[in-house]
Design goal:
The chain is an alpha+beta fold. The protein has 3 domains: 72 residues, Arc Repressor Mutant, subunit A (Orthogonal Bundle), CATH 1.10.10; 58 residues, Orthogonal Bundle (Arc Repressor Mutant, subunit A); 45 residues. Helices cover 48% and strands 14% of the residues. It contains 10 helices and 8 strands. The strands form 3 sheets. A 3-stranded antiparallel sheet has the order 1-3-2. The protein has a 3-stranded antiparallel sheet with strand order 6-8-7. β7 and β8 form a beta hairpin. α8 packs across α9. The longest helix has 13 residues. The radius of gyration is 20 Å and the shape is globular.
């Protein structure tokens, strides 16, 4: 199959393994990997980096993550680069639990010690758990964390409404969720929702409709 034919098959399949690409191209693995590099393909950040997708295919969410079935891709790069980007973008730093929620990782994953040793990342213990901060934004994130911790967990009635709206709008971010609830007469500060999600270890379950 010629290169254009392979790209068309790739676009239809959405994700391919190196073995599948080698078969389509009728080439060696080295040649297939060279093609992937030329196409600026993304490598999955889970599944042992076994899957690839082309730049035109992913629809990244606000965290820069695209989920296809159980395969995750990141616009930030590899897994460590993605974790660093999430910490950098966060309002108040992120705990291992919060990072694990977004990236669908075990909280005790061996990648977390690597994250703490990454330049530009600072790890501190707060209320019995480690929180990761960006060195460049440390002061602002630390101040925001103090503010977050001042908000209590939402009431049971508020929690039900939060979960209902979140399930109905799985791609919504926390500030948008807070505004949506306010329009429906439920005033819950974004920090309270953030604390609620972290406290209950609520994971995103985004259904791929692409």
């Amino acid at each position: 199959m010629d290169e254009q034919g392979v790209i068309k098959r790739f676009l239809k399949a959405k994700v391919l393994t190196i073995e599948q690409l080698v078969s389509m191209l009728g080439s060696s693995a080295i040649t297939a990997r060279r093609k992937l590099k030329n196409w600026s393909a993304f490598t999955s950040i889970n599944m042992n980096g076994r899957y690839y997708t082309l730049p035109k295919i992913p629809h990244f969410d606000h965290d820069g993550i695209w989920r296809y079935q159980k395969i995750l891709f990141s616009e930030h790069g590899n897994l460590i680069e993605t974790m660093c980007a999430l910490v950098e973008q966060s309002q108040a730093g992120l705990s291992a639990q919060q990072i694990a929620q977004v990236l669908e990782l075990p909280v005790n994953s061996s990648v977390f010690p690597r994250l703490s040793a990454t330049p530009g990342i600072r790890r501190e213990r707060h209320q019995g758990r480690f929180v990761y901060f960006s060195e460049e934004r440390y002061k602002d994130q630390k101040a925001s964390l103090t503010l977050v911790q001042e908000f209590s967990i939402p009431s049971d009635a508020e929690a039900v409404m939060i979960l209902v709206e979140y399930i109905n709008n799985p791609n919504i971010d926390i500030p948008q969720l807070s505004k949506l609830l306010t329009r429906k007469g439920i005033k819950v500060h974004p920090n309270a929702i953030y604390t609620f999600f972290a406290y209950h270890d609520i994971q995103k379950k985004i259904v791929d409709t692409g």
